[in-house]
Design a protein that fits this description.
Elements: E1 2-3, E2 11-12, E3 24-25, E4 28-29, H1 36-50, H2 61-70, H3 72-106, H4 108-121, H5 126-137, H6 142-165, H7 169-177, H8 182-218, H9 225-234, H10 238-266
Antiparallel strand pairs: 1-2, 3-4
Helix pairs in contact: 2-10, 3-4, 3-6, 3-8, 3-9, 5-6, 6-8, 8-9, 8-10, 9-10
């Protein structure tokens, strides 16, 4: 659009502020903001090469990636053991949490008796139980699986129990008036309404399962990412230590994403 001032030639009209080209301000180009992750990596690299922190204590990201690639086969073997222990403990925790939540929801006396006990167990740090589990079960996979189970079991149980208790009372009364039994109440009302809380707890427990397995491996074992981290720490190979930490973080994120995909498959009506 052009305007023609009095006594002058036509000049382009100014663009509205909302339609001005992005990235231009006061005649200068403003670069887009870098993602925080890239800024963090850049800061990490700058600290590692500046000499402010000794290189053996804070290896740069390129050294960590080089260590990850160099030990990829060894890390893959240790990761397999950690994933097996985490998967076994998490599967047992999901099954036990569902059964106990249903029992406590159906029986008020059991709920009143076990509810405070479940809350009390949350105050006990799981890392304090690891030495006892190793003492009782040995140095095999059993104490690792047990620690993962204890880490994941109680949050899942409390989440499911709360979801079952908050089911819509009107819907429950409607099904009861139609002659529905307890199994049908759980199938059509309580389990669907508690699916959101279950997957939320499962998403957190999936990441906790890897952490619990690694912590238990720190205290004893012959394989696993925790054992690998102890060995490289004793040799002061902190680039390999950071590589193992990176693997744990990536695997935890991957498990959380798998749970998210499983939730979308189980609840296709759920909006993002």
């Amino acid at each position: 659009m052009k305007t023609k001032p009095a006594g002058g030639r036509p000049v382009p009209a100014l663009l509205p502020a909302a339609k001005r080209p992005s990235g231009v301000f006061a005649g200068r180009f403003v670069p887009p903001a870098l993602p925080p992750f890239i800024c963090l990596i850049a800061l990490w690299q700058a600290l590692s090469v500046s000499g402010m922190v000794p290189g053996y204590m804070l290896p740069g990201p390129f050294r960590v990636l080089a260590a990850l690639w160099g030990d990829r086969l060894l890390l893959a073997g240790h990761l397999g053991r950690t994933l097996a222990e985490a998967a076994a403990g998490l599967a047992l925790a999901v099954a036990a949490a569902f059964v106990l939540a249903v029992i406590m929801d159906m029986n008020r006396r059991i709920k009143d008796a076990l509810g405070p006990l479940l809350l009390l167990t949350q105050t006990i740090p799981t890392i304090a139980l690891a030495p006892l589990l190793i003492l009782w079960m040995g140095y095999g996979s059993a104490p690792k699986i047990a620690l993962v189970f204890l880490t994941c079991f109680f949050p899942l149980t409390l989440g499911l129990l709360g979801a079952f208790s908050s089911a819509d009372e009107d819907e429950l009364r409607l099904l009861k008036s139609m002659g529905a039994n307890s199994a049908q109440l759980y199938r059509y009302i309580k389990i669907p309404s508690g699916a959101g809380a279950f997957f939320s707890g499962l998403r957190v427990s999936a990441s906790y399962s890897i952490i619990g397995a690694v912590i238990s491996e720190w205290l004893g074992g012959d394989a696993g990412l925790g054992v690998y981290m102890i060995r490289v720490r004793k040799s002061y190979s902190f680039d390999k230590m950071f590589a193992a930490i990176l693997v744990v973080a990536l695997v935890s994120l991957g498990l959380m994403k798998l749970v998210e995909l499983a939730e979308k498959a189980a609840r296709p009506w759920k909006t993002a």
